[in-house]
Amino acid sequence: MATVDSVLQGQRRRRATVGAFVGTAIEWYDFFIFGTAAALVFGKVFYPDVSPAAGVLASFATFWVGFLARPLGGIVFGHLGDRLGRKNVLVATLFLMGGATALIGVLPTYAQIGVAAPVLLVVLRAAQGLAVGGEWAGATLMATESAEESKKTMAGTWVQQGSPAGSILATIMFMMVGSLPDEAFLAWGWRIPFLFSAVLVIVGLIIRSKVEESHEFLEAKQHHEVVKVPVVTVFKTAPALVWLGVGASILGIAAAFFNNTFLLSWTTTELGMPRQQILNALFIIAIVQFIWQPIAAVIAGRIGRTRVMLLAILLNLAAVVPLFLAILSGNIVFLVLMLCVTTLGGAGYYAMLASFLADAFPANIRFTGVALANGLCASIIGGSTPLIAQSVLNGFGPWGVAVFYAVLVTATLLAVWAMSRRTRGATTDAPIKQHV
After folding, report:
1. Residue-range definition of the domain harbouring residue 144
2. Burial of 303 (0-12, 13-18, 19+ CB in 10 A)
3. Residue 224 sits in a domain of what CATH number?
4. Which tens digits make up the pLDDT trace of 32-58?
């Protein structure tokens, strides 16, 4: 019979997992609607004085700004999270992200205030990046550090569920406003998904306010194992883990924005496919990802997390050529089928990524280590993916983009393999001995 204490512990763990999932879903929603708007709207609204192709590139460059700000967010919020705790940092990141997103929804256009409009868009995009720089790592740690040892992988997977959940919600919003006539969509329709973020943030803040602090952080604090300057300690004691973590995160970060931003733009402009069809396709693969990730976590519990990650990445690599054949065919059924195949591969790996990175770092520098690995990857790879893919498309054509995509997948495969060998058997909960 369960004791009162075990019941309360179970409730705390569930609240931690739910709080991590809901908040991460909201922040991914904010990021995805920006990416979708960058592909469909921002070039016309904020950069109207350049050619359509240049407008898309300028829009994607603005998109990248959010990723460039993520390492700084990782350093700032990682420092606070490793020094002061996970909970309050997660409340702050959610508030910052939601506030910046809602303000984008009321931002005047270039036609109204001139060059100040894209400048303000860049500033708000940077605020989003700062928030996400701390959000993903904090949510990962809140969920995994609060879970039982045997359930850490599944807890981490629920953090990863925030990505498809945010994508589903973002796609639904743009499917609704995307059905408006082009004039209404460009005038005011695109603003609705951004303004809706304010409602989501209120819900998320209520849920997160009830989450208790991670017990692993409290134990580190109790034993005086909190380090003075976590970012310095991370690069002194575990620099290789940071850079391997960057490599291991490549596909997880790049794939989402390859599909939801670059592919959306390419198919609806140069390839002339209907906007609503592609939004429907993105909606379908987000559902596939949401369903498949927990199943992959269960499989990992039986055959091993690293094995599932490597097999999933190999599936993604094998599907690169068929995917691009499907894109160039213009056949929406073929395209959806191949996007689902690549999603099965990508999601199978992505479901494990949170717990995989969290297990690599000691508890007292874990927030900073995970935030830096994820943030640096986002800055170098994630935000640049649509911009580089569009540039490669302009210079080398579709198969040049296929090579670029295959390189990203291969780099991820090698980094996951190397990191798994380096951390095999490591006691990552052993703290770095640098006391306050």
Report:
1. 10-207+217-423
2. exposed
3. 1.20.1250.20
4. 788 778 777 887 888 777 666 666 667
